[in-house]
Amino acid sequence: VGVLPSDIEDNTRFGHSFLLDRLLLAGGKILGCQTADVKLKIGIHTGPIVAGVIGTKLPRYRLFGDTINSAARMMQKGVPGVCQF
Question: Of 15, 35, 52, 66, which residue is least crowded by CB atoms under 10 Å?
Answer without folding.
Answer: 35
